[in-house]
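Hey, I'm writing a tutorial for new members on how sequence and structure tokens pair up, and I'd like a real worked example in the thread rather than a made-up one. If someone can provide the structure for the chain below, I'll link this post from the tutorial.
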Amino acid sequence: MSRSLNIALLCHPTIGGSGILATELGHKLAEWGHQVYVVSERPPHRLKNDRPGIHFCESTPVEFPLFTSPDHTLPLATRIAEVCRNHQIDVVHAHYAIPHTAAAWIAKELIGEAAPPIITTLHGTDIVYLGAMPEYRSLLQHVLEASDLVTCVSNNLKERTLDLFELEKEIEVIPNFYEPRPVTDTRENVRASLGVGDEPLALHASNLRTIKRIDLLLDAVKVAIANTSFKLVILAGADPEKVKQLIADQELQDHVMVADDVFDIDNYYAAADFTVYSSEYESFCLGILEGMRYGLPSASFDVGGIPEVVEDPSTGFMAPFRDSEKLGQAIAKLADHPELRSQMGIAAKERAINCFSADAVVKTYLNAYRQVMED
């Protein structure tokens, strides 16, 4: 039997695909008997560090009068090096290249020959947007080449990365996964707390960054409510007040609700009927997969890696980016036809289990860890 590993996971603490994937990966690795050291500036939103095998290692940004803003990267590098030395880390797994891969590379320089290998997992905007900026591009080129293995969550992101960077190494595609947690409240209670009765309930969960295009989402909602009755709940990972103002400006308060700081997200998926996404770019869209695992079809724009997750029209509907009219029509169709919704939901759940299971994906990561340790 292979020995258990000591793994350092580097991730952002905020709600977003990279932090969620890293957290869930850590939970699963710990469940399988490995020791996981999560290094971040604060506990990631979904981290359960009271579980055996999960250890949170805080990296505190430094504020100094000379600095115009707190320094994150250098204290993070120092903390990574400290964790590696103190816990005999076998492999460092950096999620989201900025600043984690750069900090891991600095830590490797600090440690020297005893430094563990580095795996970088790219999640999307760290490459598509930050990677295209001249302020980061040459550094990213260097640290990606210095990584012992680079992975990304979709073929689309792999293609985008190779378009931006001339990498000699191969990029391995390892998709996201989602393992549902036990539901802790009834569907009826959750819907009642949102003021939802028998009408269909759509769900959108994200960090609400500009790239999520909530403006286009609300445009689509206006199209849909002109033809049918439904409600939308937005699970806000950031800036809930800004989104609430957008909803008020569009006079959609009777149709769109915002819930922020939600931990038991599974309760909301279990209470919803379908999901809606309007992003300008998604390397994968973990929110769609989370919904699929609960038997929810989706309506979304056809961008990035979403076509690798959604089979249109079997498990969801896709519209061209910016076509809020067509996205609204897809929303209305899902809201109006419960039998179709159910049929698509069954197909969505089956696809989620068959193609994006936790066991298969985590096993792939474990094989990657052992491979880079042997190289």
